[in-house]
Amino acid sequence: MRALVQRGVLAVLLLMTGCTDNGEVTGPTQQAPSGSARASSTPRPLSTPSPSPLAVKSAPGVSPSSPSVTSRSLAPGELIALNQTLIGAAWDNNVTEARRLIDAGADVNYEDETQQSAFLIAASEGYLELLDLTLSNGADVHARDSYNGTALIRAAERGHADGVRRLLETDVDINHVNNPGWTALNEAIIFGDGSPRYVETVQLLVEGGADVRLPSQRDGVTPLQHATSLGFQEIAAILREATEQ
């Protein structure tokens, strides 16, 4: 009797497990693996890591300033890295890279340990496209370099007439005096060579409202006196005419 009961129990167990009494599997009874359609009717969305700001690039037809690109706030370390990389791109006059970095959050007014910013570099080096880019992205035209000089003074010193023209379209202080005691007009004469680009620079400054009678705070010499002593006849003629008006 006991043997019959035991065989009955064994038969029930075999039916439950899908096996025959000789151990063969008769049907799939295992649970579907996690992640399959049987395990869940709603797939879990994949998480997408936020890109590094240094790697941000716009997809075709997508504005770099759209929320999908710039909505994430930058950590201090990321912002410093962006700004320092922008300084390097400015020295290289790499406008494409500079634009990408600015779109990613770099600051055109950030100054390194030598008080150089992308904006000031563009002005002093005559990088007109880069200068336009920085101005259109909030460049501070009143920013000063380590000599307390403005971007206009830097551009005038190098005879970058196109840069001077562009800066004169802003509200930059045309008669600002730097630490050595010179204005943009002074520097265009003292550091110039009297060549056509410096003549054009002086002409632009005079037409823009530069004080032609303002003597240098360094030596008390007027722009006309400097131009005359250096033999820059064309520049002296421009200054003489402006002085007589």
UniProtKB/TrEMBL annotation:
Keyword Magnesium: no
UniProt biased composition (Low complexity): 53-72
Keyword terms, alphabetized: ANK repeat, Repeat
ANK repeat residue numbers: 114-146, 147-179, 180-217
Matching Gene3D superfamilies: Ankyrin repeat-containing domain
Residues covered by region (Disordered): 21-72
Entries under PANTHER family matching the protein: ANKYRIN REPEAT DOMAIN-CONTAINING PROTEIN 39 (PTHR24171:SF9), ANKYRIN REPEAT DOMAIN-CONTAINING PROTEIN 39-RELATED (PTHR24171)
Name assigned to this protein: Ankyrin repeat domain-containing protein
Organism expressing this protein natively: Arthrobacter burdickii
